[in-house]
Design brief:
321 residues, transmembrane helix, globular, 11 helices, mainly alpha, membrane, GPCR_Rhodpsn_7TM, G-protein coupled receptors family 1 profile domain-containing protein
Length: 321
C-alpha cells in the first residue's frame, strides 16, 4: 500500500513536471525571460529527482535493509544521486533570488548576471553531481570503511554523510533566506520614490505599475518556493544532528523525514501553475481542447471553437505581460 502510494505520487509528480516544462517551453518566453528559464531548469531538475526517488523506493520496499546483495550498491548510488538533485535545486532557487535582486537594480550588476546565466546553472548542476558522485566512487573503492548496509536508515544519518550532504544544503537555505531578505528590502526601497510620478507621462506610469506588479508576482512565487524548500530540507538535517548528539535513531522518523523531501517537487508544479500566468493559460487551453464535442455540431464547427478559445486564451496571456 505504502509502495503503491509513493510510486503513484512519484509518477504523478513526474507527469506534472513534464507538463509544466512543456507549458513553459510553449510560451516562447524562455529566451526572453530569465526567471522563466530558471524555473524551467528547476522543473527539469525536480523531474529527474522523481525518477531517482521512485527507484530507491522500489528497492527499499522489495529487499531487506540488512541483507547483503546488489541492491545495497544501488542504494549507495541513489543515496548520492538524490541529494545531488536536491543540492542543484537549491542552487537554482538561489539563482532565482539573485535574478530577482538584479531585476530591482537600475543598472544590472555584471556579477549577478553571470551567476544567473545558463552556463552558471549548468555548471552548478554538474558540480553538485560530481561532488556527490566522487564520494560515491570513494565508497565503492573503500568498501571496508563504509557503512555495511547503505539501504539502512542509519547510512544517510551518519555524521560523515551529514557533514558532506546536509551541511551544504543548510548553507544554501541560509543563503536563499538572506538573499530573499535583501530582495524584499530592494523592492520596498525601489517603491519609495513614488512622489516623482507626477512628472511622468500616463504611459510611463502604466509601464512602471506593470513592472512593479510583475516583480510582486515573481516575489510571491519565489516566497512559496523558498518556504517549501526550507520545510522539506531542514527537518531532516535537524534530526540528523540530533541523532549524532543523542546516539539514538528511529527508523520510522528517518523514513518520514526522507519522504518529506518530496514536498519540494510536490508543491513546485502547483506553484508554477497557479502563480505563473502563462503556465496557467496553457492548462486552461489544454482542458478546453479536451472537452467532448456536442453531438449536434459538425466537426468543423468544433474545431473552429477550439481554435477560437485558444486564440482568446493566448491573447489573455500576453495582454498584461
Amino acid at each position: 500500500m505504502k509502495l503503491g502510494f509513493i510510486l503513484g505520487l512519484c509518477i504523478t509528480l513526474f507527469g506534472a513536471h513534464v507538463f509544466a516544462a512543456v507549458a513553459l517551453a510553449k510560451t516562447g518566453q524562455l529566451a526572453k525571460n530569465k526567471f522563466f528559464r530558471l524555473a524551467f531548469f528547476l522543473i527539469l531538475n525536480d523531474a529527474f529527482m522523481m525518477v531517482g526517488y521512485a527507484w530507491i523506493t522500489i528497492i527499499m520496499n522489495t529487499y531487506d535493509f540488512y541483507t547483503e546483495g546488489p541492491h545495497q550498491d544501488q542504494c549507495l548510488v541513489l543515496l548520492h544521486l538524490v541529494p545531488a538533485s536536491i543540492l542543484s535545486s537549491l542552487w537554482m532557487t538561489f539563482s532565482m533570488c539573485l535574478q530577482r535582486i538584479n531585476a530591482t537594480v537600475v543598472v544590472s550588476k555584471r556579477i549577478l548576471t553571470i551567476l544567473t546565466s545558463t552556463i552558471a546553472i549548468g555548471l552548478g548542476f554538474l558540480f553538485s553531481h560530481v561532488y556527490f558522485l566522487s564520494r560515491c566512487v570513494l565508497e565503492f573503492i573503500r568498501k571496508v570503511q563504509r557503512v555495511q548496509f547503505p539501504c539502512a536508515p542509519n547510512y544517510n544519518t551518519q555524521k560523515r554523510f551529514l557533514l558532506f550532504a546536509d551541511t551544504p544544503n543548510a548553507l544554501f537555505v541560509t543563503f536563499i533566506a538572506c538573499s530573499y531578505l535583501v530582495l524584499i528590502f530592494r523592492i520596498f526601497h525601489k517603491r519609495k520614490p513614488m512622489n516623482g510620478t507626477k512628472r511622468l507621462s500616463e504611459l510611463q506610469i502604466q509601464q512602471e505599475r506593470k513592472a512593479a506588479l510583475r516583480i510582486c508576482y515573481n516575489m510571491i512565487t519565489l516566497s512559496c518556493i523558498i518556504i517549501v524548500t526550507a520545510v522539506s530540507i531542514l527537518p531532516r538535517t535537524s534530526y540528523g544532528l540530533y541523532i549524532n548528539f543523542n546516539g539514538t535513531i528511529d527508523d520510522d522518523i528517518v523514513r518520514a523525514l526522507n519522504n518529506l523531501l518530496l514536498l519540494n517537487p510536490l508543491v513546485d508544479p502547483i506553484i508554477y501553475i497557479f502563480r505563473i500566468k502563462e503556465v496557467r493559460c496553457q492548462l486552461i487551453c489544454r482542458c478546453r481542447s479536451n472537452k467532448t464535442t456536442p453531438l449536434g455540431l459538425p466537426m468543423q464547427s468544433a474545431n473552429a471553437t477550439t481554435s477560437t478559445s485558444r486564440t482568446i486564451v493566448s491573447g489573455l496571456a500576453t495582454i498584461t505581460k
